[in-house]
Amino acid sequence: MSMLHIVNKSPFERVAFASCLAHANAGDSILMIEDAVVGAVDGSSFSDKVKAAMSDKTVYVLGADLAARGLEGKAMEGIVSVDYAGFVDLTANNDTTQSWL
Amino acid sequence: MSTKNFLFVNRKAPYGTVYALESLEVVLISAAFEQNVSLAFIDDGVYQITKGQNSKGIGMKNFSPTFRALGDYDITKLYVSTESLAERGLTVDDLMELTYEDADDDYAEKPSIILVNREEMAAMMAEQEVILSF
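Predict the joint structure of the above. Result:
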């Protein structure tokens, strides 16, 4: 059973992103959208947690949200950028989704 | 109608926003459709089931007694994060005593609250087919 975790809140303002990482299982996928994309930036106080998650989970970011915030090219290596069609594919290819509101 | 494993994830404190009350409403609706329902209380969600809530002073309805009724709807699995309790200076003694009567065991009264750590919570989530977050 694979799960897609969707996060949309900045990890610097809310604990939702940290809670997501704490509860995701190995093999799960994590997708950052909306304000959560700031969590993709390398060298932040949160980036070590994302890097740790990438050891056994796949981390995605919605490219349009990253670009909107001027953060394209600042994402850490290993994070997979997806477009809206890729977002749909992720929801279709996982058994369940969980939104961390 | 097929039965699925439904999990309601509660991560917000009551009263400040409508999420907690809305979650409880949907939980009760799901019970009417005879699904296998579990609830999770994580982060500020643990404040939803503290005992001794008194909302008179803020002019809002205290909906915490409704959690006591869940057992009558066969909703008997309320998973509570031990880390979230500890981070907030709370213990299980600060929570309401939520129980259900086990029809398979001569209607013995049993606790509905199940204390779990993060690993156990994650494993429980992996068994779910539908997850609704509030």
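Chain A has one domain: 3-100.
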